[in-house]
C-alpha cells in the first residue's frame, strides 16, 4: 500500500473520529497509562473547559471529584493484557457534555476472574438509595481490609454518592484471560 493511500486513510479516520466526538458531544479523550500527573493534567483541562462554558460551581465540583475517583480506579485496579507486572496499567477516559448531563466514561482491562465480584458490587451499589450508599460507605470503612493496591471498594460507592445516578457498566470479553471494563458515570447539570 502506498504511503499516500495510508495517509488518506488515517485522515479519513481522524475526520470520522472528530465527527463522532462532535455528534456525541465528547469534549476530552485520553488513552494511555494513568498516573498521578496524567490525572492532574486531565482534570485541569476539564476544569478549564467547564469554566469556559460557565458551568455552575456545584456541577464543576462533582465532575472534577468523580473524574479523579474514576482515574484513581484505573491507576489502582486496571490489569494488563499480559502477565507482565511491569506493563503499564492503561485506560481510556472520555468526558462528554450534553444538554442535561456530563458523562465520564472510563475503560480498562480487567482479569476475567475479577468480573463476577465487580459485577456483584456494581449491582449492589445500584440497588441502594442515597442513605443506603452512605451506610455502605461507612460500613466499608469500618469493616473492610484495605487491599495492597489501596481502597476498599470505596471508589465506586463514592462515585454513586456524588453523582446521585446509577452506575452504567459493561464488560467486553477480549479473550479467555481478560475483559474490557467500561464504566459510565452521569452528573446531572440541573441539580
Short description:
The protein is α+β, with helices and mostly antiparallel strands and 191 residues long. It has helices spanning 3-23, 36-52, 57-77, 115-126, 130-143, 154-163, and strands spanning 26-33, 90-97, 101-111, 168-173, 178-188. The protein has a 5-stranded antiparallel sheet with strand order 1-2-3-5-4.
Give a written overview of the molecule.
With 191 residues, the chain is α+β, with helices and mostly antiparallel strands. The chain is 50% helix and 23% strand. The protein is built from 6 helices and 5 strands. It has a 5-stranded antiparallel sheet with strand order 1-2-3-5-4. A hairpin with a 4-residue loop joins strand 4 and strand 5. 20% of the residues are buried.
Report the uncertain regions.
147-152
Average pLDDT taken over every residue: 85
Task: Write the H/E string, N to C.
Answer: HEHHEEHHHEE
Q: Count up the helices.
A: 6
CATH fold title: Heat Shock Protein 90
CATH architecture: 2-Layer Sandwich
The major β-sheet equals: 5 strands, antiparallel
Query: Which percent range fits the helix content?
Result: 40-55%
Q: Strand sequence of the main sheet, in spatial order?
A: 1-2-3-5-4
Name a few traits of the molecule.
single chain; 191 residues; alpha+beta; Heat Shock Protein 90; five-stranded antiparallel beta sheet; 50% helix; 23% strand; globular
Write the layout of secondary structure elements.
Layout: H1 3-23, E1 26-33, H2 36-52, H3 57-77, E2 90-97, E3 101-111, H4 115-126, H5 130-143, H6 154-163, E4 168-173, E5 178-188
Antiparallel strand pairs: 1-2, 2-3, 3-5, 4-5
